[in-house]
Amino acid sequence: MENHKVLFIGPVGSGKTTAIRSISDIDCLDTEAQVSDVTGRRKQTTTVAMDYGRLTLSEESRVHLYGTPGQARFRFMWELLSEEIAKDCAGVVMMIDNTRNYPMRDLKYYAREFANVIDNKRLVIAVTRSDLRMRPSVEEYHGLLKELGKEAAVCFIDGRRKSDLLSLVELILEGQCDYSEWATLKRLAEAEQKDMEFSSNGAELEIDEYQGEQVVIKESVVNGLLNIEGVLGLAATDANGDLVTSSLEGSQLENFIALVTGIVPDQGENSSLGQVNNVVFRDRHENNLSVFVWEGMALGVVSSRKTSTRMIRQQVNDLLQWG
Question: Quick check: 314 and 307 in contact, CB under 8 A?
Fold first, then answer.
């Protein structure tokens, strides 16, 4: 019996759980939990541990499908899945939601976080929701992959269509599996899907035109952060170092400006810390100041000491992508 493994990675809401459910021929094991943060803007549940499904190709060949949680707070499961369960996988499918504000940032982030796996395995980029927004295009994704020094096929798919997902698995297993009936398997899947209606997944959402990867701190992001329990205030500067918004005053604002003045010039190769994107300080009032930096722009969030800074970081990332 040939047993192959395929690992599905990518941000929350990109379609990993749906994809595994769509292609698996057994009832899937999943660990969905009710969403209690900003992720609820896009979906009601999220994977907190792993998804598992199985595709039987023949009596001699099976494919085991593993899906990781999307949120960084479950990084321990990323390590378990990539270093233990799927360390001998045939390849990796990275799923990217084209309607997020900065989808190519997602590609760079997950390529870095799972580098120990994808540097030695076949990689396929599966882009979902391209029916709702066509950009970034296939060519733009290939351009970024070239910059990153990665080789991967880029496929625009519907994560609910079994035939699309079979094509992904076929790409992963090419040259690693003797199975030769992919065309027949996909025809059967298409016949099953013929009478199924697939409405635009997320058509009710407000989706902006693609504006590139330059981070923009929108009013909705500011309001979303200020509504988080434990957040006491925030301030942001633009790429020129000018203050663009602030609910901070006095010493808190002065401390933020002073910190940004020191951090932004050091972001990147000149810093002994490498690429600095997020640092946390504690002020004299015992509050936390989380500073986030992107291409010279900076955001500072003051939060109660009782509030998890990891949660703040996750909320900032999610609001930037969906705000």
Answer: no
- Report DSSP letters for 11-72, one per residue: -TTSSHHHHHHHH-SSPPB--EEE--SGGGGT-SEEESS-EEEEEEEETTEEEEEEE--SSG
The backbone torsions φ and ψ at residue 232, rounded to the nearest 5 degrees and listed phi first, read: -100, -15
Nearest CA among 44, 19, 35 for reference residue 95: 19
Share of the chain above pLDDT 90, in %: 44
CB 297 within 8 A of CB 240: no
CATH number of 2-193: 3.40.50.300
DSSP 213: S
Return the pLDDT at 323.
72
CA-nearest of 228, 242, 244 to 288 is 228
Q: How far apart are CA 4 and CA 133, in angstroms?
A: 33
- What digits encode the pLDDT tens for the residues 220-267? 899 999 999 999 999 998 878 889 899 998 888 888 888 787 766 555
- Spans of all domains in the chain: 2-193, 219-322
* % of the chain beyond a pLDDT of 70: 85
Q: Output the DSSP codes for 234-263.
A: EEEE-TTS-EEEE---HHHHHHHHHHHHHH
The whole model's pTM is what?
0.84
Architecture of the structural domain at 219-322: 2-Layer Sandwich (3.30)
DSSP three-state, residue 280: strand
